[in-house]
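User: I'm preparing a small set of examples for a lab meeting where we compare how different chains pack in three dimensions. I only have the primary sequence for this one, and I'd like the structure in token form so I can line it up with the others. Please keep the answer compact; I'll paste it straight into my notes.
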Amino acid sequence: MTDQKKTNLFMIVLGIITITFSIYFNKENSAYLYIITYMGIVFIIITLPDNKYFNWFKAIVLIPAGIIGVIGPLLKILFEFIFAYFLPLGFIAMLFKYVPEQLFNINIAFAAKVYLTLTTTSIFITLCSEKLMIWCRKTMNSDNPRELLHLYNDLGNLLINKQRTRYTIFFSFFCYLLLYSIASLNNIELFTVKNTNVAIMQTFATYVAFDRLLSNKNLFEFNPKLFLSKISLIWGFDFSQNKNQNSKKEKYNLPKDENTY
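Assistant: Understood. Below is the structure token output for the 261-residue chain.
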């Protein structure tokens, strides 16, 4: 199977999953879920072969996406940003909202859902947003020359990267901390649901701990080859010591220790 066929198959499966997921959970006629449904349709439509019948159909369905594409490269970067940041946020939010209750009959408090959603999303986009954007960029520019893809990579990496993602998350928490502090000092509740502020604060604390783990991961680096070389020296030294002791005892006809066997 060629790379193009693998990509098309993946896009079809992703589109079917996206459409099924959004339709199943769109019980409140959410505009956001309609957008996700359209994205799933686009994932499938772009895999159709080029001929006079499919081209008209693709042209009609892709009119909204085409209008966005005509505006310019910045909107492509914006789409990559939405795909890598807000799409995971939406999926993770729906995951913690519906899956525990509908599949496991577990009722999770709203504050706990907020904490799990924000924490999981912030960690996920920190680790995976660049990879998602690169994949999205390659998919959108699969028919373009390699030089153009390289230019898009340069532009995308200039505007959005892992360090900027971390900075954006910290800046968001910083702004919320200022807002929360002012509201708290004036006895103003930012949310009507209890413990929502606590959930956001705990998310920030968890992300700070996670960020410190990433920053100090070199402190826990483990080199198996170095470990084996070090411990092999100890084994070799112990073996040579035991061998020397046994040879001396044999020379002077001394009894051997039982632990040498």
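A couple of notes for your slides: The CA atoms of residues 249 and 256 lie 7 Å apart. The chain has a mean pLDDT of 79.

User: Perfect, thanks.
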